[in-house]
Amino acid sequence: MTVDRSRPRLRLLLLRLFCLRSIRIQSIPVSSPNSITEFTDFTAEPAVRGFLHQPQQANGDALVLTHGAGANCQSKLLIAVATAFADEGFLVLRCDLPFRQARPHGPPFPAGAARDREGLGRAVNILRGKTSGRIFLGGHSYGGRHATMLASEQPSLVAGLLLLSYPLHPPRKPTELRTAHFPKLASPALFVHGARDPFGSHAEMESALALVPARTLQLEIEGAGHELLPKKPGGDLPQRITRVFQEFFA
């Protein structure tokens, strides 16, 4: 008796193709008239890899934007925020940190934290060669934390910071604060924080920001958690962040 194994294999192949197609559909950026192109720079270490959002009508300013510990530069939040900033005329480089370039999955290792900051510094310098205006640096969670650390080490590196869900402390560990560098932070910073973020409450964030000598503002997002974006599509959060950012840095 002959057993036909081609049909199960064909069904498995079709299922894989469907899954890949679904993943691609989910990663498509929101509609925007601006140009979005893949970007890589291997001329020095660490390499810089990501996507460049080029606005139709540039305002001269630029933003480096990076991801959290469990994501990459293709996260929905980063795509939405980068698109909103490009719509307002910013040149935006949405990039993967060195740890994510080395491994597609998994959290960063503490030993590689300095290299991640070096990668952000390289991204900032690359954008400096592409625009004549101000350069801003931003990131979600882990990426934002290391953006603040880099800015505290190099006070003149950027004109300001955009910090999405700063991880003030690990969940349920309020005494393990990540603020040792805050007294050295001389760059103005906008902190965007969810009211339900387990990495820090509004009151805890306000107390922490009092340690920063530079000008700061906390934008609290009602009902939002650490990921900030609502589960249902829609809403104007990215545009709201962009509007408050422009007012703060006017």
Core attributes:
250 residues, alpha/beta, disordered N terminus, eight-stranded mixed β-sheet, 7 helices
Describe the structure in brief:
With 250 residues, the protein is an alpha/beta fold. The chain has helices at 6-26, 76-87, 98-102, 113-128, 142-153, 202-209, 237-248; strands at residues 35-41, 48-54, 62-66, 91-96, 135-140, 160-164, 189-194, 216-221.
Radius of gyration: 20 Å
Tell me the strand percentage band: 15-25%
- How many individual helices? 7
Tell the overall outline: globular
Strand-and-helix sequence, N→C?
Answer: HEEEHEHHEHEEHEH
Mean pLDDT: 89
> Could you describe the largest sheet, including whether it forms a barrel?
8 strands, mixed
**How many individual β-strands?**
8
Structural class category: alpha/beta
Q: What is the straight-line distance between the termini? A: 79 Å
The residue ranges in which pLDDT falls below 50 over 5 or more consecutive positions are: 1-30
Instruction: Assign a percent range to the helix content.
Output: 25-40%
Strand order of the largest sheet: 1-2-4-3-5-6-7-8
